[in-house]
Specification:
By secondary structure, this protein is an alpha/beta fold. Helix content is about 40%, strand content about 20%. It binds uridine-5'-diphosphate. Belongs to the UMP kinase family.
Amino acid sequence: DEEGKPARRVLLKLSGEAFGGGSVGLDADVVRRIAKEIGVAVRDGVQVAIVVGGGNFFRGAELSVAGMDRARADYMGMLGTVMNCLALQDFLEQAGVKTRVQTAITMGQVAEPYIPLRAIRHLEKGRVVIFGAGAGMPYFSTDTVAVQRALETGCEQVVMGKNGVDGVYDSDPRRNPDAKKLDHLTYTDALVNRLGVMDDTALAMCRDNDVQMRVFGMEGEGNVTRALAGEPIGTLITT
Ligand code: UDP
């Protein structure tokens, strides 16, 4: 920017649950609001990469319990994330934000393939890059992919939007009324105490590569913008 300091570049992880507004499919009002809040941060100069989950459509593990082959079910899960990407792309463009979708499973008609150097170029030009289809590999989660994409595209922080909670607690706040919210913890704390922030693969990857993460609640108005701008909301997790 003008002061010569490098722009803040962050990776925003949005769960599919958020997009569904609590049920299967898309809640357009929710996606529109998220897109507007991202747009504010982008106009303030934040470079934003996004990984979107797909839990509002399919989760491979659940389909597998219902009798499907796990790997095939996981591919269905990955395809679901792409629908969320296209919805978010649409509402971002409506909000005046330039976007590109890149998918880990090639589908040239709807998105670019995942090309890291090209993604970085988009970010430098102020375009929001939305990564779809997870890692393109069964048995992974979009949380793990969020960490991987953040590392490969040089993001300084992963900001993880959560539904129904506003950060990380010392025990499950949905079950324990005395649960205390933590302002800061380490990845080892999260792993050892099984705090359920995200899966162990993603936590270990953050720890091993020294990635900073902020977990915040999606519900509060303006929270997405705040998290993208680097404000200290929710919980900070570090090595
Ligand atoms: N998935 C996968 N590999 C990946 C990312 C996702 O197989 O690299 C599948 C997996 O079945 C998962 C589904 O896609 O359950 C949706 O992703 P996720 O559950 O991470 O979405 P979220 O919980 O964030 O909505």
